[in-house]
Amino acid sequence: MPFVVVCGPPCSGKTRRTKELQAYLASNHGNREVTTLGDHEAGVDRNTVYADSKQEKELRGTLKSAVIRKLSKDSVLILDSLNYIKGFRYELYCAVKSSQTPHCVIYCETVADVASEWNSCRPEKEQYTQEIFDGLVMRFEPPESRNRWDSPLFTLHPEDELPCQAICDAIFSRKAPPPNLSTVSQPLSATNFLHELDKITQEIVTTLITAQKTGLPGDTIGIPGTQDKINLTRNVNAAELQRIRRQFITYTKLHPVEDTSRLHSMFVQYLNNSIR
């Protein structure tokens, strides 16, 4: 189903825009089912969840799993949540590519003072505490139209009208993003594929561990076998790197590639999306 990601800081008008889009679709595309997912549907207490990084990660996993289950080509799916981490939006984009359906992003850009005032006007049970509100605003990573996972992007201020027709054109008339190596299963033709997969990923992990001994967070690390580089935003211990490596191996076994020389680049990209 065409997929719409609604993102923005707390109390920035995301649910209002979701309802406006739902109403427009009901009036003009009544033959299409519209499904909405979000924190409310997940039944969570947001102040509790967003105060605990583990619970927050679990919530993102729950939302992502629900999105993957409900993606189809027959109805519209709207994700009404903060969606404030660009890495999470990238994961959603990969899911969209895998299901071969178009998507778009709606960004509710509301200044913090206005959003805070709207938050204080909510019923007490629905309000964010000031500490949680300030933390989420500070951590919010705005979408950028130059990023393929944030495009097409519709940026809205509180006084703007929702460009409903343009959004419908983006999700109904535009072609779905083409599949790539990370989202399409290909036949396993190389007899030494698993051996190469194990060897290449271990070599990259070893290179990264060695580089960290003399490097600093913020360094860019070159990897033999690919022009792609690892952006080391923080120190990553061997245990975490091995966990990421196992995840990549498990995924790649299910989505093997014929050209094993591409594994270097694929694993580097996977590491860059995992190390944040």
UniProtKB/TrEMBL annotation:
Gene Ontology process terms (BP): regulation of transcription by RNA polymerase II; tRNA modification
UniProtKB keywords: ATP-binding, Nucleotide-binding
SUPFAM superfamilies: P-loop containing nucleoside triphosphate hydrolases (SSF52540)
Protein's UniProt name: Protein KTI12 homolog
Family, similarity comment: Belongs to the KTI12 family.
Organism of derivation: Patiria miniata (Bat star)
A molecular function (GO) term: ATP binding
